[in-house]
Amino acid sequence: PDNVASLSIVSSLCHTEVTPIVQFKLNFLLPVVSAIGNAFPGLAQHLFATFHVDDVVEKFEPSWMRDFFVKEAGWAHHYSVLARIKIILRLDICEQVESIQQRTLVVYGEHDNFTKHGSLELLEHLPRAEPHALPGGHLPHLTSPKPFSEALLAFLASFAEVAP
What is the pTM of this model? Predict the structure, then answer.
């Protein structure tokens, strides 16, 4: 921690809460997808991406975003995705992030119905958090790349202004 001058967090959270729809998918669809993954991991990952896209991509976002998510998430390593899901479901690091004293840029989508609440909760626990809402949903760095780049560059440039 003493060597870190700044930290940027994109669409993150310190505590996991899931909606009833996501909980249903975790309880009933994920075990089926996981079982399929034992024999056909590629098919299982494509099914996971197809079931999960409505949680991640907002209805108002461009159709290319939905296609992009299914395509890219469908190529992910199935067993790695399942392992990350298990980790994220147990995530509760709110107390630990309170010790981060570096300025922290927290970027989230204005209309993210998946993790925005968690990003706002993270802001409450980071003492030097600098929030930045972007147009879009859960993946605003993809749907709003220019505003994302501008926010990140401005944050990083602010360190040059205060450097000795």
Answer: 0.81
